[in-house]
Amino acid sequence: MALKPTIYKFKIALSNLDSNFFDQLELTVAQHPSETPQRMLCRVLCYTLFAHRNISFTKGLSDVDVPDLWSVSNDDHPLLWIEVGEPSLDRLKRACRKAEEAIVVCFKDRSKVWWEGIEAKAAGLNLSVLQFNESALESLTNALARTTELSITITENTFYIAANAEPIEFEINTLK
């Protein structure tokens, strides 16, 4: 019998000052059985970072042909393709071919080593690579419940998150 995903509900008061976007989000997110809580939370934070671009979750780990998040045009052409983690170079090339813009969001401290290993080969790709702080995601995991309320402010490339009255702050590191 296959394991089922764990469902989480998020109520998020979002203030993204960098993109002048403000909203009250209610998200239902499925955590794949093979996915860590940190990776799932990284997907949620990616959603908040790019919510102003009409972003949506995909089947992610369940479908290798789509990214974790994306924004598509009215004719289903990918405008924005977001990969979470450390995808292969082939996956990055496919993302850059299919979408107008491709972004990778890493969330491990060792992601710099991964990026340095493929940076030269990925130099010609129209790709942005961001890195979230691993210890901040672990702190956020401690506040995670099946129903979680968050207050998130994004300004000057920094996340300010209030989760269960515990403040979490981290800067978004740009690798490319």
Automatic annotation (TrEMBL):
Transmembrane segments: none annotated. It comes from the Bacteria. PANTHER family: SUCROSE PHOSPHORYLASE. This is Uncharacterized protein YaeQ. It comes from Umboniibacter marinipuniceus.
